[in-house]
Design brief:
Strand order of the largest sheet: 37-39-40-41-38-42
Radius of gyration: 32 Å
Helix content: 25-40%
Number of helices: 9
Distance between the termini: 70 Å
Bound molecules: calcium ion
Shape: globular
Largest sheet: 6 strands, antiparallel
Length: about 750
């Protein structure tokens, strides 16, 4: 059995995912983690006395091997690694909602401290694409930004929603790394520098990503799912009722291939085969896992898998030591529950990958006997069916009950149902059998459509028939595979034949073909030219929409009109003889989806598009005005706060002077003034906080608008639009910004 080779207990409660190991002096690995009190602790078991003089770091008074770094606000991400290869040692990077700090722990000095308007929810350190220097890449409010060791931002782009996870991985196997971005809109996007090369839609927020090897990577969702992708194909996934707190790739059984190690919210750690998801090792901590990492923590030349948990077995803090009374000021922190760290060495060759000892065999025996039970049950069912067929021929009153005819076929059809008074419009799946058999139940597995991914339709015994209609309402415009299990038999059957089949729900199934109404045609549009025959566009329409069977679209020029089943919005797609296509819709996201769908169907690499979304652009103009206002309020408040702190200093000095002069009246007055000033400062702080929240919300809307303008284009024009939009915003050139969003370029 694999046992931990070391265990540490540290007196700090740490924030999940904010743990890293770095060699801050180039040699000794040290664990660094963000505490929930706005500090970062650095555990350095190898050097006993280090003297820190600057203000950021101080020695922990209770533990000689722990230093604390003051951040003074909630840490939102943390990592360590090589940022400047010339230094020969690692930098510590700490992100908050407003700043990114790159810290030289060895010299106790800042490498840089940058304001980051879009916040830093996630961070990854490494090289990206052709950019030669390592970058600290942060993901925030719809934005991605990468800094070199001097704090220059060499990389910037926007993405669809708030970023929750980042990883670097050679996704396309060209030897250079791509950036994987997991965000709040359930998408994993792959950036080749600033170009999106792949998008995978998941079913929940992507909370963690980790590179494994080659183009393979692990992911975790906020609903307890973990799994492995190879490029755009998902290998496997499992779903737990616990949350995956941290994932990491590590070869624990020494077979040369990394396993996916997951640390869970219930304290479980498991290692799963990258190919199958099968558990090859597990261990339990008494509280949630905060981080899974690797490092040679014992400095013996062997890399260990290192798991950190927030331990529940607390004794520290209960007993008030003399020491903790002396350090009363920081005592609260030490009453937190201590953190537990365990390190595991990979299994040896003699263990032959059998890390769990006998439990593997026991599991296998349990699994096989379960299989045996199922097979016996199946055999008995066949025997009973055959008996029923013989003893009760079809003439009996309650009809046949045995095996269904061998030529029974199952038909499925997808269509659009416009709904009626009591039922909203929806897409509809109709399943029917080819004879007098009935459908007893249908089990549907599909991602992102039903609560909990599966849906059972089970008509009452009085409503059984040979066909069944199931409403389907996908919340997003993505193609979804519907995996169906249909139970077919007779009214009085006790056993049913199960038909298994898969149907794909097309991407735009929530749009019904309707007759055009010129009065309702949307003013917003995108316009572009593609070198494709109209028939091919018709094939694209057929594959991506649920068109009625009798639809007969003539050759170009033609136009089709759809109505959204979600909000009644109109969508027009018109094609001219020249190959010019105009799409009218007020939904800029839908326009982007249609362009991206056509681009992948027709394999278009670059597409320039002319666009206008008057209502949306007007909203954006208002947002930009607000951003300006919030910025100036921010500056005004900061100046006021600086003035007030000067005033406080002088009041305090004058009050103390008065006390020394035993002028109690003046002293009292000064302290009263101080008290009032303090109240003002507190109010000012509240205003600053609200102002900042509003500013963040508006900045997010601006980033989203840039991303949407980009999604209306394909390839190079897309990247040009995103870069030009950012330049326009930096130089505060609003008219140029809208020109770029409309025609795709700043120059006329
Ligand atoms: Ca690559
Ligand atoms: Ca392995």
């Amino acid at each position: 059995m694999l046992l931990p080779v070391f265990t540490l207990k540290l007196r700090h409660k740490i924030s999940p995912r904010m743990v890293a190991i770095g060699r801050y002096d180039g040699t000794h690995p040290c664990l660094a983690a963000a505490t929930q009190a706005g500090k970062v602790f650095i555990h350095n078991p190898h050097t006993r006395s280090q003297h820190f003089s600057a203000s950021r770091v101080f020695q922990s008074p209770l533990e000689s091997d722990v230093s604390l770094l003051n951040i003074n606000q909630a840490v939102s991400c943390l990592t360590a690694g090589v940022l400047n290869p010339e230094l020969g040692y690692d930098a510590l990077l700490v992100g908050t909602q407003t700043n990114l700090l790159a810290y030289d722990v060895y010299n106790n000095s800042d490498l840089f401290y940058r304001e980051v308007a879009d916040g830093a929810n996630a961070i990854v350190l490494g090289t990206l694409g052709d950019i030669s220097s390592p970058l600290a890449i942060i993901g925030g409010n719809c934005a991605l930004q990468g800094f070199d060791h001097e704090g220059n931002d060499l990389f910037w782009t926007v993405t669809g929603d708030n970023v929750h996870s980042l990883a670097l991985c050679d996704f396309d196997g060209d030897g250079k790394k791509e950036l994987l971005v997991g965000s709040e809109d359930f998408d994993i996007r792959v950036f080749k520098e600033d170009e999106i090369v792949a998008e995978m839609t998941e079913t929940e927020i992507i909370t963690s990503l980790c590179p494994m090897y080659g183009s393979r990577f692990g992911y975790a969702l906020s609903n307890g799912t973990v799994g492995v992708y190879d490029k755009t194909a998902r290998y496997w996934r499992i779903k737990s009722k616990n949350h995956a707190m941290s994932i990491h790739a590590f070869d624990l059984n020494s077979d040369g291939v990394c396993e996916l190690i997951t640390g869970w919210s219930n304290g479980k750690v498991d290692a799963r085969s990258d190919r199958t998801g099968e558990v090859i090792f597990k261990d339990n901590f008494s509280s949630a896992i905060a981080g899974v990492l690797e490092g040679d923590y014992r400095m013996d030349g062997h890399t260990q898998l290192i798991c950190c948990a927030v331990d529940g077995e607390s004794t520290v803090g209960r007993e008030k030591s003399l020491k903790s009374q002396i350090f009363n000021l920081i005592e609260s922190e030490y009453q937190e529950i201590p953190l537990q760290v365990r390190g595991y060495l990979p299994g040896t060759a003699e263990m032959r990958g059998n890390l769990m000892d006998t439990s593997v065999e026991q599991d296998l025996i349990r699994e096989l006997s379960q299989k045996k039970q199922n097979l016996l049950l199946e055999l008995r069912n066949y025997e009973e069916n055959a008996k029923a067929e013989l003893s009760s021929p079809q003439s009996e009153a309650d009809g046949p009950r045995g095996i269904i005819p061998a030529n029974t076929k199952l038909h499925t059809a997808l269509s659009v149902n416009l709904g009626h008074e009591t039922q909203a419009a929806h897409a509809e799946l109709c399943i029917s059998t080819s004879n007098d058999t009935i459908i007893r139940a249908v089990l549907i597995f599909a991602e992102g459509i039903f609560l909990g991914e599966s849906h059972v339709v089970h008509p009452s015994i009085h409503n059984l028939s040979s066909s069944i209609r199931i409403p389907i309402t996908p919340p997003k415009d993505v193609p979804v595979d519907l995996h169906l299990k249909t139970f077919v038999g007779y009214r009085s059957s006790t056993q049913f034949h199960v038909f298994e089949l898969t149907r794909q729900l097309p991407r735009f199934s929530m749009y019904a073909l309707t007759s055009p109404d010129p009065a309702r045609e949307p003013l917003s549009y995108v316009n572009f030219v593609i070198a494709e025959r109209a028939q091919r566009v018709v094939i694209w329409l057929n594959q991506n929409f649920l068109l009625p069977e009798d639809t007969n679209i003539q050759n170009a020029p033609f136009q089709v009109c759809f109505t959204s089943l979600r909000n009644g919005g109109q969508l027009y797609i018109k094609i001219k003889l020249s190959g010019e296509i105009t799409v009218n819709t007020d939904d800029i996201d839908l326009a982007g989806d249609i362009i991206q769908s056509m681009a992948s169907f027709f394999a278009i690499e670059d597409l320039q598009v002319e666009a206008d979304f008057p209502v949306y652009f007007e909203e954006l103009r208002k947002v930009l005005v607000k951003v300006d206002e919030y910025h100036s309020v921010h500056q005004k408040l900061s100046a006021e706060m600086a003035d007030n702190s000067n005033l406080i200093r002088s009041l305090l000095v004058r009050a103390e002077d008065a006390r020394l002069m035993r002028d109690m009246k003046t002293m009292k007055n000064r302290y009263m003034e101080l008290y009032d000033l303090n109240k003002d400062l507190l109010n000012g702080y509240k205003i600053r906080c609200n102002n900042h929240t509003e500013l963040l919300g508006n900045l997010k809307a601006v980033n989203q608008a840039i991303q949407r303008a980009g999604r209306l284009r394909v390839g190079k024009p897309k990247n040009q639009v995103i870069t030009a939009c950012r330049d326009a915003i930096r130089s505060n050139n609003i008219n140029t910004l809208f020109r770029i969003m409309r025609v795709g370029t700043a120059s006329s």
